[in-house]
Fold:
Amino acid sequence: MPLRHTSFLTSYANDVGYDGVFERQVLALGNAGDTLVAITTSGSSKNILKAIWGAKQKKLRTVGLTGKGGAIAELVECPIVVPSSDTQLVQESFLSIEHIICELVEQALFGVGTTWPNDQTIR
Structure:
């Protein structure tokens, strides 16, 4: 489940602060063996770093997408670093990387050439 429930985000951020908004959801919803994919252009977003620490407490696997610099690459098990500090370039690169990850997950789950129930074939 993506950690972006808008009612929670706004109420928690308004009442408690934004720094722990993702960590709280990881602690509440994460289970050992789940994977947290943390995304931060700077690699230093406090709310993302706290979510990673929460994931470690709950024994989640951690993947981090980041730009050059910042602490995230040292904290996650699988850092994916775009070697740039240009925000626009990093974020554009994230889109391609995210699509590649989705494709790899589909191949791992369903295999190449797997037929879906409505007879569409994945190629």
The beta strands are 35-40, 61-67, 78-82.
